[in-house]
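Hey Z.,

So I finally got round to the 4'-deoxy-4'-aminopyridoxal-5'-phosphate thing we talked about over coffee. Here's the setup:
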Amino acid sequence: DFHRLPNFCAGPATMPTEVLTLAQSELLDWQGRGMSVMEMSHRSADYMAITAKAETKLRGLMDIPDNYKVLFLQGGASLQFSAIPLNLLNNQAGDYLTTGAWSGKAVKEAKRYEKLGLGRIAEVATGKGSNFTDVPAQSEWQLSDNAAYFHYCANETIHGLQIFDAPKVDAPLIADMSSSILSERINVSDFGMIYAGAQKNIGPAGLVIVIIREDLLDNASEWCPMLMNYAHQAEKESMSNTPATYAWYLSGLVFDWLEEQGGVDAIGKINRQKAELLYATIDNSSFYANPVAKAHRSIMNIPFTLADSSLDKLFLTESEKAGLLNLKGHRDVGGMRASIYNAVPLDWVQQLVDFMQDFEKKHA
Ligand code: PMP
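And the result:
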């Protein structure tokens, strides 16, 4: 038997126990081949079947149309902050909406390529004035004419701010969905490109997924490293060099698991329930608070503060003693944060809520 505790880490995040158990059973000997998946050639027929299946499952879960490529790359979501202008800027303008730490990093990195002369980078608006608790109204966005793309972050993991509806702009949309991919249904064809680091809703760290519309593939700068070149990686089926083989395999197991849970619609319902339970607990008390505008409250990452911040340390030591792990907020925001990705069951959120109410009774 094993010992697993409610883990609210923002990433690398908790994995479905069923997936880890299955991986454990296959660890030494995958399907009678006498070797582990991590010992296989990435060019072998067995491994190619593993990756092909993972892609098929992801396409099914997200309903990805045929005119989109799905790439399984490395370097995390952060390397995409460079890959995007290198592949797509094409001497035009790249529009960026800043709504928190991650979209802020994306525009900052892109600016380096403006200096290199690859095009113009425009921050169309920033939510900084609200401390990133709200999204600037679209009427205030300074959109560029004929932009090559419009970049935004669908879910700001640190600030707990989510943009649920794809913005309606003329340029192809690029969304950083690192912390919201597969959390509920989206319409892939609203986007030119979607990318997500794996270590939250997909699998272990070391893998980043890029979903890109084919007509955007051929605009890369000659300075774009081949490993970051989307057209090249599409042609090589994400195997221009040795891919993150084991992480890719585990991601495929997570896709199987998600399908068994009923897919994104089913998990989306549970995700809403989990988030509502936690927000209701916060809103129904004057002891806890969450500052984010209601329409943009994340269903994946829920930061909260205590009215008396001198109790923060005690909250963290007591919650850890109660077996509730990784509730410390990010230093940019302070307080606490509960990340409640797909693999966090409703029961864990109930345990957290029970603990919070108990703590409030003792210390209010
Ligand atoms: N974007 C978002 C929304 C994130 O949450 C993160 C990681 N926390 C990143 C980008 C960066 O991801 P990586 O560490 O994989 O580069």
